[in-house]
Predict the structure.
Amino acid sequence: MRPRAWWFGPFLLLACGGEESPGPERGFDCEAPAEEGLLVGTGCPRAVARLSPRVRIDGAWLGRDAPCEAVGEAVRCPAGDAGTVEAVLDGDLVRVRFTAASPVVVEALAVEGPASVEGARAWLSNGFQSWSQSGAVALGGPIDDASLDEALAARGDAEVVREGHELSWTYTVVGGAGPALVAGAVSAGRLHPWARAFRDEDAGLRLTLASGGAGERVAVAAGETIEGEPFFVRAGEAAAPLLRAYADAVPSRRRAHPVETEAGWNSWYELWDAVDEEAVRDNAALARSLLEPRVPGGTPLRIVVDDGWQRAWGDWEPNEKFPSGLDGLAADLSADGFRVGVWLAPLLVAEDARVAADHPEWLVEGVEYRHLKNGPMRVLDVTHPEAAAHLADVIGRIVSWGYDLLKIDFLFAGTWEGGRHEEVTGMEAYARALSIIREAAGEDAILLAVGAPGLASLPHVDQWRVGGDIALENFGAAWPFVPNQARSIGARVPLCLATLCDPDPVLLRDLGREEVETGAWVVAMGGGALFLSDDLRALDASRADWALDERRVALSLSAEPAIPDELLPEDAPARLPSALSDQLGRGGRSTHVIPRTWRMQDGTRVAVNVGEEPAEIGGVEVPARATRVAP
């Protein structure tokens, strides 16, 4: 059901329909004086938020204590001597804008205020980029401004292993044992959008929807106006239809340029960066023997050469391990009937790469990503005309070698604030980088974004990695990475409804049969691709039967995600564990809380047990680390 909306005094009210609530959320006063935004004559709504606008300047949020006013369909608040900030409801979209009275530097814009969601127990915390921990967390208390600022400033690996209780990037869902409220940005073109839900000191629910605060500094002249990223906000009796509605509001290239799902083999998850030409050729033939009899007729088979083919990060030419060159390899594989793809990190440059030495002016000042294995990396400044031309040349050259899928990785670094040739925010630079890559690759090339912010990438790319890596070189194939991936898919359903989500390959080696089978179900939940990534020369081929049955193959290639029955479980943790913490600190036992039952794309209902003991889930007994079809 669509929400009703009311304007009372200085507040915007958004509420779902339905029966009268048996009681409001503590701290949300439905009988407050009219000047505080009373909802008169309707009783207390079952899901409601009362939001008023804010602007952050010089580290302080302005507008909180100001006497605001309703002006038409806007709520307008003075922001000290700096200007005025207002929020407007435009259908399902909440828009915030600030108009400066004098020259200022704006750091963020937001709406915030009390909320009431009957039965709320948890909220969805989404990580910033593909690999970042994402999932349901219990509604907790407030955190201090310093802790929030630290979470907003976290970058790279520190953000990936986030615990999620401070904020949710891009969107959130609030609910549990009743209705739900979904709030999500529909663009990320200039400022980093994020949301936050928590209990205040009086146990009342509060909601914040913000743009910026992650280091952005936007100069606004007197009389000029800056707008935040618009937020879709809707409440209803169930989360699933709200998530579909939000997905429909998210801009995505897929709607105008859909690509088909594919099966194949990727070199990364056992060969790592030691991959060579011989290994690719050998595995291509073996992948065909395993996949061709099992995938539907006509399904494209693709071979992807991952990290390890290049001279250096930033110097994107083949090294001595590929004597035929990448063009020669692509020609031979294409002649054998394969489609071919290749990995690169187009926005990162190793400090010892030729490009870094020859053109330091092409690199973003004050920004460094420290790769755990390959050392410090710099970020290409695409606002520099020569650097932009270089990026376009790299992409065009690789496509000319015969590669029509580019797995573009470590993209998050392109969003970081730093000194650039032009004064733009990190998100503006990121949008420019993807536009350059798309134009150079051509409309027919497939771009798979990895290590990438979802919302900001979807207008430019064809596929998006939905979760963290399914294995790490230090551990190989390990169980905790499987539930971690499932939790990410559940948390990111709206993005996977808007684009093709890459769930990473199913790994066949080392794990037990139930673990391999569950890994295959997780790939099926993603619905966006079906890839292998073991070194098939050393694999017992019979293990393929554990994962590549007709049903899961079809679901993996369905181009739709599965939908969790319960997105916000009753036992949602206070903080998100990571696959890394489970592997290192808990002896390989998963402590993840994931949705236990899922509605698959064909209507099948499956029950997943990631625990260490058998459990009855969805009316069926499920062994430890296993999945079963439920009634």
Q: What stands out?
A: Residues 1-11, 17-23, 32-44 have pLDDT under 50 and may be disordered.
